[in-house]
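USER:
Class, as today's exercise, take the chain set out below, and explain how the chain folds.
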Amino acid sequence: MNRKQALLCAGALLLTGCEPAKDHYGPDFREAPYIDYLRYSLGEDCQITLDRSRQGPDGEYYSEWTAQYTPEGADAPRELHYTTYDFFTGMVNHPTEQNYNDYQLLHLTVPAAKHAALQDFADRILSKYYFINSFSDVISIPMEQGVNVSCWLYHAPTDAKIPCPAPTARAADPQTGLCVRTAGLQSIAQDESFILCFQTEITSDDADVRHFTEQAEQICADFLRETGAPKNYRFCVTRTREEFGVERTDTLFERTKLEGFGEINAEAQLGGGDSVDLWWNLMNALAEHLNQKYETAPAE
């Protein structure tokens, strides 16, 4: 979480080596109303531990925590590590302290839900086509030279560049919000806040383009069959090559669906200057749709 605010006393504190003035900075998720959501999302037996509070190089204090929970069907508990910061008035993307704290709360739960869904996707579908090593945020599968297969998940309330106060509050709701302990491919595919992204990038003229295109089409078909009617996804195969000294990228296969838009040609409807712009445009379009769907009249 990158926040550019220097405390007035930062220099003096650094020079004197003073300890943090408070026990913790930012919200304490062991307290209401946050603990209600965490018991719903992580389970009644979840435990939150304050590891330490410290001052960063920019002079701002923050706290580091560990959450322990047991996913449904797991034999042993797992740990989630997260950081919290104090709210300050004037934050552009967070109009209220409650919204900012909900955002921090989701930075605890969303990564765990993403990883569970991607692991499920790898086990149930991708493993039929590729050997997959362990991964953290993104499944990245280097194939033959000049071919890379990758898969990841976007979460509009926490990943989009535009503010999402209402969708953020819904995702952190203690009755209907994001549930981590039961998260998997099916539940995340049915969650309108997530976009499953799968891309095969080909940069070699020697690669078997037809093979990788047909493979991506089959993986997409498997995903649709396994998840029923998923809310948001994009599967694509791109080929980048140099022609007359200019790099050109062509889309050889695309299948995209976005809540509020339906099945679309993402490149034609949301495309930007390059593929990175397109991915951002896709996520921001979803965020705008969710804002319009759930946002009440904005506060003055």
Remarks:
- The CA atoms of residues 220 and 234 lie 9 Å apart.
